[in-house]
Design goal:
The protein has one domain. It has helices at about 20-45, 50-80. About 70% of the residues lie in helices and about 0% in strands. It contains 2 helices and no strands. The protein is mainly alpha-helical and about 80 residues long.
Length: about 80
């Protein structure tokens, strides 16, 4: 019998427990910045719809960076208020 949905993929990477939230956010921001740089560099080597698609991905990454920055600011403000 064929299953209607496949098994979920096995996770190759995990995030260790006990890492500070601010450290996680900084690493998230750096990862997004790297992904943005890669997508922009690749997009400028392309033409037409493929370039537009990759620039769209770059915009989504930039939006994620803005969201991560906002969370990082709020975590920093909450930490300062509690001290």
């Amino acid at each position: 019998m064929i299953k209607p949905t496949p098994n979920p993929p096995v996770r190759l990477f995990t995030v260790s427990d006990g890492i500070d939230t601010e450290d996680l956010l900084v690493n998230l921001r750096e990862t997004l910045a790297s992904a943005n740089a890669l997508s922009c560099d690749l997009a400028f080597d392309l033409e037409g719809t493929k370039r537009e698609e990759l620039l769209g991905v770059a915009q989504l990454i930039e939006l994620a960076q803005l969201l991560a920055d906002r969370v990082h600011e709020e975590v920093g403000q909450a930490a300062a208020a509690s001290n």
